[in-house]
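User: ok so my PI wants both of these folded by tonight, can you help

Assistant: No problem, let's get them done. Here's the first:
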Amino acid sequence: MKAYMISLGAGLLVGVVYSLLGVRSPAPPVIALVGLAGILLGEQLIPVGRRLSDWPELARFVKNDCANHVLGDLPVNARRDA
């Protein structure tokens, strides 16, 4: 969670600097980011559809395969998890 907060803080700082300089951000518009999220979720529709007939297999697939692919590797706090 700390990595996400640092990332958000850095982004806010850069946004403030861009605003003070009067330049526009080179980041893609929000609509493009929503489209990318749709692509990630859409990739999972066919595999999930194939597994709909077997509920235990579907639950395992969503928990183990889909979540890791869509969310990526989440940061780990080595000190807390030790």
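One down. Here's the second:
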Amino acid sequence: MASPSTDDLWFRRFRPSAEAAERLVCFPHAGGSASFYVPVASALSPGVDVVAVQYPGRQDRRHEPGPSSVAALAEQVAQAMRTWDDRPVTFFGHSMGAVVAFEVARRAGRTPVRIFASGRRAPSRTRAESVHTRDDDGVIAELRALSGTDAQVFQDEDLLRMVLPAIRSDYRAVETYRAEPGAAVDCPITVLTGDADPRTSLEEARAWSEHTTADSEVRVFPGGHFFLSERPADVLAVLNEHFTAAPARHA
């Protein structure tokens, strides 16, 4: 039975847990990296094997071009995890990561137990967005407005300019993303959203129900687009609730 490793091209395991009964795969937001989920790995280990996806174009993959599209990225990730068969898998994706997780689930060899779609409107709900066409200062202004980027990045001009190409690629991929008509998965979807998120309305969050043949629910938290950074304990409580039910699933 195959299992992801720490030196794999696509996946990072910050708290490896060979004895964990279930696995959580985490998908970063636009401009984000696998390390964004270190706190999740620390909180859920050793009971859950937390694996974070590392998109190309950042950190140790910074010399690679960023993703060309959500579909292409999802296909690559799905292929990389196609041999995973050793334990049940749950997906968690924030913002861009939510639709990447959704598209990976549609392509993966086995259906995840559940998808947690955080901070992102339903795949069928589109908006006219063009951050990827702005100049560097315009992209930086967007990052500052959403408050999801480590403040230290803004203090290091060289670092900021180095990561901007990957960030722009991410924005291009997610802003040009259009789900196929009728696209759906066969697993439940839990939608997490901030009550003051300028990028996702409550109606757009509820519309995720159109993209699953199973159940769906919406959990609303105080906060903006990065409510999960503002309310980490509350978000972790939702994940713990899910994994606490794992023994019943195994039975």
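Residues 11-250 form a domain with the Rossmann fold fold (CATH 3.40.50.1820). The two ends are 21 Å apart (CA to CA). Good luck tonight!
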